[in-house]
Design goal:
about 500 residues, alpha/beta, seven-stranded mixed sheet, four-stranded antiparallel sheet, elongated, 3 domains, 18 helices, Growth Hormone, Chain: A, Rossmann fold, single chain
C-alpha cells in the first residue's frame, strides 16, 4: 500500500507538469512569444498551486475521499484542457481568459493533491520521512514528464492526446486509491463509478482527438486542412483551395503557392547574382526547400548546406508529393546537404566558409527567434563568409512593421557590415523586406538566371528604392541582452490586428 501511494506521488507530479507544459506550448503555438507564454503560464500555475495548498487545510474529514475527488477533477479538466483550448481559439474571442482560467483551476487542484496525499502517508512514516519521500517522488515525476514531453509525447501523440492520456493516468490513480484505501472511503462504489465514467469520457476523447482538432483547425483556416503535424518546435498545417497550397507554422502563413515565387526570387537572386563566381551556399531556415529551388537555378553552385531546426519540416518537403512538386525536388539534388540543428549553435561551431548565405527564418515574434536577428548572430555569420561573400535576410514588412524592418537593417550595420535594404510586393503578404549584408557594398546584379517569373535585370534597381511611408526611422539595434526587435515586432503587428 505504501509503495502504491508513493507511486501515486510520482504519477500525479508527472500529470501536473504535463498539463502545465501543454498549456504553455499551446499558448506559444497560437499566440507566439514562447518566453512570455511559458512565463505567465508557469507563474499562474505555481500561484494556483499555492492557493490549492492553502485551501487543503480546510479539509479536515474524509481525506481519502477528497483526494479521489480531486484526482478525478484534475484528470478530467487537465485531460480535456488542450482540446478545449484549441476549440476556444478557433470559435471564440475568449482564448486568453479561458487559458488562464484552466491553468489556475488545474493548479489549484494539483496544489491540493500533495498535502492530502501527505496526510494519507503520515500514519506510515514519521513526518520527516513523509516530506522527504513525497518531495523525492514528486521531483522524479516532474523530471520524467519534462523529458518525455518533447521527446515522446508531442512527436508521437500531439498536445491533445498527451493531455488526455495523462488525464486518464490521474483518474487511474483515483481508481486504485479507492481499492487500496477502501476502508477509509464511505462512498467507495460511487467514487469508483465516477472514475469509470471519467475514464470512458477521456478514452472517447482519445478516439475523437483528431476530429476535435480538425474541427478547430477547420474553423481557424479558410481553406481545407490537408495536413497537420505537431512537432517539438511548431504546429505545421497545410491547406489547399483549388491550386493554392498554403503553409502555416503556429497559425502564421509562411507561403501561398500562387505567389511564393515572388518572395523566393527576391530573397535569393539579387544577392547571389551579384557575386562573381559563388560555389558554396548556406541556407538557414527555409525548411520548405523553396529557397533551395531558386539557388539551384545557378548552375555554378557546387554545394548547398541547409540548416533547419525541425527535421519534420525537411522530411515533409522531401517526401510529400505536392510539396516535392512545389520545390522541384530540391532536397533530392546531390548538391544539397540537410543539417538538422539549431542555426545559432551550428553557425557558432562550424568551421566551414560560404560564398553566400540565405537567412530565411520566421519573423522575430519571440525571443528564441529574436536571437537569430541580433548583432551577435550576424557577426558570427559574417565570420563564415568568404572575403567577398554576402548574406541576405528576410526582414518582415517595411510598410506594416517599419520599425522592425529598419531595426534589422541597423542591427546588421551595428555588427560592422554594409547593409543594402530592398523590398518586393508579394500579394499574400503585401510589401516585404529583405536586407543584403556584406563587408563591402555588393553591386546591383547585371544578370539573372533563366526561368524567373518575377524578377528582371531592369527591375532590380527599383527594389532598392523606398517610398516615404517605408523610409528609414530611428530605432535601436537588436542585441542578445535587449531583444528590442521582438518588442518592435509585437507592438507593430498588434496594432495591425486590432
Amino acid at each position: 500500500m505504501t509503495a502504491a501511494l508513493l507511486a501515486s506521488v510520482l504519477l500525479i507530479a508527472a500529470c501536473g507538469l504535463v498539463y502545465e507544459l501543454v498549456a504553455g506550448a499551446l499558448a506559444s503555438y497560437l499566440l507566439g512569444d514562447s518566453v512570455t507564454q511559458f512565463s505567465t503560464v508557469i507563474g499562474t500555475y505555481l500561484f494556483a498551486m499555492g492557493v490549492g495548498a492553502w485551501l487543503s487545510r480546510g479539509v479536515t474529514r474524509g481525506v481519502a475521499a477528497r483526494f479521489v475527488i480531486v484526482e478525478i477533477l484534475v484528470g478530467v479538466i487537465g485531460g480535456f484542457s488542450a482540446a478545449v483550448l484549441f476549440l476556444a481559439f478557433a470559435y471564440t474571442e475568449s482564448f486568453r481568459l479561458l487559458l488562464y482560467l484552466l491553468v489556475f483551476t488545474v493548479g489549484v487542484l494539483v496544489g491540493l493533491e500533495v498535502p492530502l496525499l501527505m496526510r494519507l502517508l503520515k500514519e506510515r512514516f514519521e513526518f520527516k520521512d513523509v516530506v522527504a519521500n513525497v518531495l523525492t517522488f514528486d521531483y522524479l515525476g516532474a523530471l520524467a514528464a519534462s523529458l518525455a514531453f518533447p521527446i515522446v509525447l508531442v512527436p508521437q501523440l500531439g498536445l491533445v492526446r498527451s493531455a488526455l492520456l495523462f488525464g486518464m493516468i490521474n483518474v487511474a490513480v483515483a481508481l486504485w486509491t479507492t481499492v487500496i484505501l477502501a476502508s477509509a472511503l464511505g462512498a467507495k462504489r460511487f467514487l469508483q463509478a465516477a472514475c469509470v465514467a471519467a475514464l470512458v469520457a477521456l478514452g472517447a476523447g482519445m478516439v475523437w482527438a483528431d476530429t476535435i482538432q480538425d474541427a478547430a483547425e477547420g474553423n481557424l483556416y479558410a481553406d481545407e486542412v490537408i495536413l497537420a503535424r505537431t512537432t517539438p518546435y511548431q504546429r505545421i498545417v497545410l491547406t489547399a483551395w483549388k491550386d493554392d497550397l498554403r503553409l502555416f507554422l503556429n497559425s502564421n502563413l509562411q507561403f501561398s503557392s500562387r505567389d511564393e515565387y515572388r518572395y523566393h526570387e527576391a530573397l535569393v537572386h539579387p544577392g547571389l547574382s551579384a557575386l562573381p563566381s559563388p560555389k558554396r551556399v548556406l541556407v538557414l531556415g527555409g525548411g520548405d526547400g523553396l529557397a533551395v529551388r531558386e539557388l539551384l537555378r545557378h548552375p555554378g553552385l557546387e554545394r548547398i548546406t541547409l540548416v533547419d531546426l525541425d527535421g519534420e519540416m525537411t522530411k515533409l518537403f522531401t517526401t510529400h508529393p505536392e510539396l516535392v512538386r512545389l520545390n522541384g525536388g530540391a532536397f533530392r539534388d546531390p548538391r544539397v546537404q540537410i543539417v538538422t540543428a539549431d542555426a545559432f549553435q551550428w553557425v557558432e561551431e562550424t568551421s566551414e566558409t560560404f560564398d553566400f548565405a540565405v537567412v530565411d527564418f520566421p519573423d522575430p515574434s519571440n525571443f528564441s527567434l529574436g536571437k537569430l536577428y541580433t548583432t551577435t548572430f550576424y557577426r558570427m555569420l559574417a565570420r563564415r563568409l568568404a572575403p567577398d561573400g554576402a548574406f541576405v535576410v528576410q526582414a518582415t514588412s517595411p510598410l506594416f512593421a517599419r520599425k522592425s524592418f529598419w531595426c534589422i537593417v541597423g542591427t546588421i550595420e551595428q555588427a560592422g557590415l554594409t547593409a543594402a535594404p530592398y523590398h518586393a510586393y508579394v500579394p499574400s503578404f503585401g510589401e516585404w523586406g529583405f536586407v543584403l549584408a556584406s563587408r563591402a557594398a555588393v553591386p546591383v546584379a547585371t544578370r539573372l538566371p533563366d526561368g524567373l517569373r518575377f524578377l528582371t535585370v531592369g527591375s532590380l534597381p527599383q527594389l532598392f528604392a523606398f517610398a516615404d511611408d517605408m523610409s528609414r526611422v530611428p530605432v535601436e539595434a537588436n542585441r542578445l541582452s535587449t531583444q528590442a526587435l521582438v518588442r518592435y515586432y509585437e507592438d507593430e503587428w498588434r496594432a495591425i490586428n486590432r
